[in-house]
Amino acid sequence: MLKEKSTSTVKKCKDTLSLIMNKAVADDIISKNYVSLSDSITVVTTKRVPYTTGEVTTLLKESDGWFKVFLYLVFSTGLRTGEAIGLMWDDIDFENGFIDLKRSITKGRVTEKNGNCSIDEFIKNDFKIKVFNNTNKTKNHTRPIPLDNTTRDILLQYYKKRTQDNWIFISSKTNSCFADSTTVNKYYWKPLLNKTKIEDKDLYTSRHTYISIMKNNGADDAWLKSIGGWTQSSRMLNDVYFTHESNERDTALANNFFYNLDKVKAE
């Protein structure tokens, strides 16, 4: 299994199987939990290589329409792709400049703090989750996210041209939110990469890029963990997300990056 799956996935499978075996032992179905006697699995984390500031500049300048707004948001806030897809206009506080993040959308399901349901159920229930059934214990999709002035202004202009008052990013096929990042990747992200000749490190790498840019420019770890949705004891920030910027040119470009985008030379 380790040849085909990540160490994290294999460990989760082993832990789940061990719980089942423990229950079987307690019910006298088997005499011993042999899974617990197997070799331990060490989780190996691999850091993604973030996009350079020059690459981000090119992607932002070469994109257009709603997808340009989407990219500004994910690159300047560190939002997970599903969190960006799930944004609604009521989540944006333009006056104070922040996002009141409340949900994420993945594989056609809306997840909030206390529960999850299908997109259709969410809309039918007046954009609320009625059943508290949340099993997500690792990702915090409820937190305030500050907006820099440039991204806020771009979002405000997009708001003035909105075609509905609910979802921010709307699929032209359904006139509703995107059900998953798959469509965004296939029809918007990959064509943009082909156009710009930039390597495909996948759209989720925008989150890693944000963390690396911010930390390389002195952002506090505690603040970044809060913005990223991790607990203060989490090692995810440094073990998985942060990549030290050793290129002096890119470090210089990163300073006040989103405030001075027009001055940055695209690559």
UniProtKB/TrEMBL annotation:
Residues in Tyr recombinase domain copies: 44-255
GO process terms (BP): DNA integration; DNA recombination
Keywords, comma-separated and alphabetical: DNA recombination
SUPFAM superfamilies: DNA breaking-rejoining enzymes
Alphabetical list of Gene3D superfamilies matching this protein: Intergrase catalytic core
Entry GO MF terms: DNA binding
Transmembrane segments: none
Annotated protein name in UniProt: Site-specific integrase
